[in-house]
Amino acid sequence: MEFLDEDVAVLQITERELKPGGAGIPVSEKNKKEYIERMVKWRIERGVAQQTESLVRGFYEVNVVDVRLVSVFDARELELVIAGTAEIDLADWRNNTEYRGGYHDGHIVVRWFWAAVERFNNEQRLRLLQFVTGTSSIPYEGFASLRGSNGPRRFCVEKWGKITSLPRAHTCFNRLDLPPYPSFSMLYEKLVTAVEETSTFGLE
């Protein structure tokens, strides 16, 4: 933004190529998905790029820990190592969860979901939280203060998909899309697989 005087501001538009030569490539149905993925990646990274670079530079310059020791962790594990673990208050989590798509607190699939979460150990619960929200950190004030990409956003479980699908997460919205599995054992198996074996999220 350029300021001309105290009362008038002129917005300056700057174009950025999302890939080399991108300015000369029109968006079409054929490349729309790639465009959206690159745009989302750029929007997410631009807000934290400088902070991330400073953190990484400081991490290596100060020799907080030997780089070879850190390289064995994936991003989720490293967050748990740095942030530590906290005991999750299941009652607080459940009391501050909303439901969509026909699910409600008494729905059998939702009851199975919470039974599965109760069966999880604390590390698995933190991984579930990280899978859905993008972080394993719990706000100091509890789950009522959970935040999404654009402000306060409660944990949400939404009915979605076919029973052959794995649950999926929308980290910007703290939402778990949970198919209406016909049994507790199937729900438990699919939930564990999604949380432990995947790192994907849905885009809206």
Shape: globular
The count of DSSP E runs of length 2 or more, i.e. the number of strands, is 8
Task: Give me the secondary-structure category.
Answer: alpha/beta
What are the segments in which pLDDT stays under 50 over at least 5 consecutive residues?
A: 1-8, 200-204
CATH class of the largest domain: Alpha Beta
SS strand fraction: 5-15%
Distance between the termini: 29 Å
Q: Provide the CATH superfamily of the largest domain.
A: Hect, E3 ligase catalytic domain
Number of separate helices:
7
Please state how the strands of the largest beta sheet are arranged side by side. 3-6-8-7
Number of domains: 2
User: Major sheet: size, sense and barrel closure?
Assistant: 4 strands, mixed
* Rg from Cα: 21 Å
The CATH architecture category of the largest domain equals: 2-Layer Sandwich
Order of helices and strands: EEHHHHEHHEEEEEH
Query: CATH topology of the largest domain, anyone?
Result: Hect, E3 ligase catalytic fold
Bin the helical content.
40-55%
Mean pLDDT: 83
SSE map:
Elements: E1 2-3, E2 9-10, H1 32-61, H2 67-70, H3 75-83, H4 90-95, E3 97-100, H5 108-119, H6 122-133, E4 147-148, E5 151-152, E6 155-159, E7 168-170, E8 175-178, H7 184-197
Helix pairs in contact: 5-7, 6-7
Structure notes:
- It comes from Fundulus heteroclitus (Killifish).
- Pfam families: HECT (PF00632).
- With 204 residues, this protein is an alpha/beta fold.
- It has two domains: 82 residues, no CATH class; 112 residues, Hect, E3 ligase catalytic domain (Hect, E3 ligase catalytic fold, 2-Layer Sandwich).
- Helices cover 43% and strands 12% of the residues.
- It contains seven helices and eight strands.
- The strands form three sheets. A four-stranded mixed sheet has the order 3-6-8-7.
- Helix 5 crosses helix 7 and helix 6 crosses helix 7.
- It is globular.
- It starts with a strand and ends in a 7-residue tail after the last helix.
- The N terminus and C terminus are likely disordered.
